[in-house]
């Protein structure tokens, strides 16, 4: 399988840089997979699980917000926050769910209500996926 260059960066540090076979990205318009030779584009991220396939071992990270850019040079993900799934604690997701519920309650108009509701649904999906995989502490 052909490889391509992938970088994952958060405000704190670079989390990954190297050759990969595939990356599954939680895009705001839906999850998408990137392989070598993918068409260029830019997408926003939603809270979700980003999976890096390299060296036969998938690595899963929880990402919250940010952007993904695919270019001739590969894939770059600039994540608002990124945490390895094995380091993720259920109370972190629960806190984000409570914040999203407060945002939904405080929403002043339909546009903000829809955005808050979508975010809440996304976070609940992440929690369910992690619980199913037994990956939270």
Give a structural overview.
The structure is a single chain. The chain is built from two helices and eight strands. The chain has helices at residues 90-106, 110-133; strands at residues 4-9, 14-20, 22-27, 30-34, 41-44, 48-54, 57-71, 74-84. The longest helix has 24 residues, at 110-133.
Q: Which SSEs are present, and which pair or pack?
A:
Blueprint: E1 4-9, E2 14-20, E3 22-27, E4 30-34, E5 41-44, E6 48-54, E7 57-71, E8 74-84, H1 90-106, H2 110-133
Parallel strand pairs: 1-8
Antiparallel strand pairs: 1-2, 3-4, 3-6, 5-7, 6-7, 7-8
Helix pairs in contact: 1-2
Q: Could you tell me the radius of gyration in angstroms?
A: 15 Å
What amount of the residues lies in strands? 35-45%
On the 0 to 100 scale, the average pLDDT is 88
Given helix and strand content, the structural type is alpha+beta
How many beta-strand runs? Answer: 8
Largest sheet data: 8 strands, mixed
Shape: globular
Helix content: 25-40%
Distance between the termini: 35 Å
* H/E series: EEEEEEEEHH
Summarize the structure.
This protein has 137 residues and is α+β, with helices and mostly antiparallel strands. The chain has helices at residues 90-106, 110-133; strands spanning 4-9, 14-20, 22-27, 30-34, 41-44, 48-54, 57-71, 74-84. Strand 3 (22-27) and strand 4 form a beta hairpin.
